[in-house]
Design goal:
The protein is mainly beta. The chain has one helix spanning about 5-20, and strands at about 25-40, 50-55, 60-70, 75-90, 90-100, 115-125, 125-135, 145-150.
């Protein structure tokens, strides 16, 4: 996918999110990628998934994110997603991330595809972490993923 696609996708997500935004709920986070731990450890995956991205929280339950990271099969992945986390327990949010990503040759030859994964988030005043589970599927070896983030606004 082209850069233009990702710019349009992120702008569309932000505009849609702003329409349902709650007052005083806006937060901007920068993430630096993270780590993965694959269920099948015999395949020599890269589990240090450094990257850069942004996440904009528009309500206690909803945020939009976009970024890029070095994935488990040593390719660059670009993504854009909406995180819907309706279950809150203090600073812990639980729900799902829904979005588009690329960079995995076994899925649509490395092109863009839809992805959904369960997502648990902890957000403190300045530091946060997203925890996800990628399930085992036909062409996907599952993993636990951890993404670290820092609040900038």
């Amino acid at each position: 996918m082209s850069i233009r696609f990702w710019v349009v996708a992120v702008l569309a997500l932000c505009c849609a999110s702003a329409a349902v935004a709650e007052p005083n709920a806006h937060e901007l986070w920068v993430n630096v990628g993270g780590f993965s731990s694959h269920f099948n450890s015999s395949k020599n995956y890269n589990e240090n998934n450094a990257g850069i991205g942004v996440e904009y929280r528009v309500s206690p339950q909803t945020s939009v994110m976009a970024g890029s990271y070095y994935n488990s099969i040593r390719h660059t992945t670009t993504y854009a997603a909406v995180n819907w986390q309706p279950y809150l327990l203090g600073n812990v949010k639980m729900g799902v991330a829904l979005g588009m990503m690329d960079g995995y040759p076994s899925i649509v030859r490395g092109g863009t595809f839809f992805a959904a994964l369960p997502l648990v988030t902890y957000e403190g005043k300045k530091l946060g972490v997203n925890l996800g589970i990628i399930p085992d599927m036909a062409k996907v070896n599952g993993a636990f993923v951890v993404q670290f983030k820092f609040r900038v606004y």
